[in-house]
Request: fold
Amino acid sequence: MESSLPVTQADAVVIGAGAFGLSAGYQLAAHGMGRVMVLDQFAPGTQTSPRAAGLYKLIQADETLTRLAQSSIEVIRGFSDATGIPLSFVQSGSVLAARTAEHAALVDDEAEASAGWGIELERLDVEGVHRIAPYLTGRGIQTAYFVPGDIYIEEPRSLLDAYMAAIAQLGSLVIGETPVTGILVDNGEITGVSTPRGDIVTPLVIDAAGAWARGVGALAGVEVPVAPVRHQLLITRPIAGMSAQEPIARIVDASAYLRPARGGLMMGGMESDPIAIDPRHDPEFSIPETPLDMQVLDDLTAALGPLVPALGDTPIAEHRGGLFTMTPDARFLAGPVPGVSGLWTATGCNGSGFSISAGIGRALAEWIIGGEPTINLSSLDPGRFGPGPLDDGELTSAGLWQYANYYTPQLAV
Ligand SMILES: Cc1cc2nc3c(=O)[nH]c(=O)nc-3n(C[C@H](O)[C@H](O)[C@H](O)COP(=O)(O)OP(=O)(O)OC[C@H]3O[C@@H](n4cnc5c(N)ncnc54)[C@H](O)[C@@H]3O)c2cc1C
Reply:
């Protein structure tokens, strides 16, 4: 028999203790929401978020995402001062580069747009790339930019632990092993959630359930259109001379990213023929069981080729993966859900949820408590695809397309 919950009434319940749910829970509590309860079906912070690469990226596809990326880095930078809880990050900056003419044109356009939105960046030549990031030879680079404001978090788990400590310090709760099995709605308004350990009365629920977010939305009769898609990365054994301060690199023509990690290199990237995994079809599934395929990373290593010779030469220390939650337009689902008053979403990560959840959590807390966010989130309206239900096959193929064309959607249309 399940033990009963320590508390049965909350000012807000957040479903999911990953990067999104913990960020939202922390920000709500810090903005004075009262008692916030973040619930997870498993141990908190154990699903996709701790498997992320930990990269933050200021060059984004539009102005809203750029503002959110800036806000996210601001939250991380200010976290220890705001909470007194240690959180380390590396101010490495990043290199954005391409080795074909068509990818170079794309990168130049992105850099120009980002500069227009206030992002500081510096153009690099081939020697400049190798000088600033010695693990890159510079071979074949046609265009490259250095973005000094980008950061990474070495161990993503550390951010989740820091959020949990901050939530506890603010008198709110993160409770694991407590799946939400029902969302209670009366007359179009949220009244609570059900769990095997009892019900919780609350007027506000945030669906931050990651790869399960669509199924959680269905508990309230709403469509939360996410298609989970596998993503993987590797970390090599230590490499002589590798410094943690070397920048992140994103090589757009290879759809791959790199950064220093544990004395070696981390590398991940987008599969050209990705696979969708929908946990709604398997109640026993959890993210550690995501099937991994080293061939995908071997292909990315081959695509990077002589630009990153250390990759092919160094044994692998870790291979990990999880699920991106893709939306049909590669934008987050963040805001109130039309049709059910008091229901919000913070999901639709599209591969950037570890980082951008920091800014989204802050914006949602401002909106919920203050009536409006300081960043206009209208383009992330969870209701923008209509009330649904969306066709499973169409949603999945749109998500797979967005995944495969993550770095280059403009080239594929
Ligand atoms: C290999 C890899 C590398 C990545 N690298 C980066 C990166 O460098 N930068 C970046 O920004 N993003 C990155 N991402 C994406 C990032 O990891 C995700 O966007 C982010 O972790 C999503 O967070 P989440 O909170 O939605 O998901 P999760 O961390 O999976 O959390 C969702 C939680 O909801 C819980 N839940 C689900 N259903 C219920 C229920 N009914 N009741 C209670 N709890 C429930 C789950 O148990 C889970 O703990 C990467 C992803 C992968 C896989």
Summary: The CA atoms of residues 204 and 342 lie 5 Å apart.
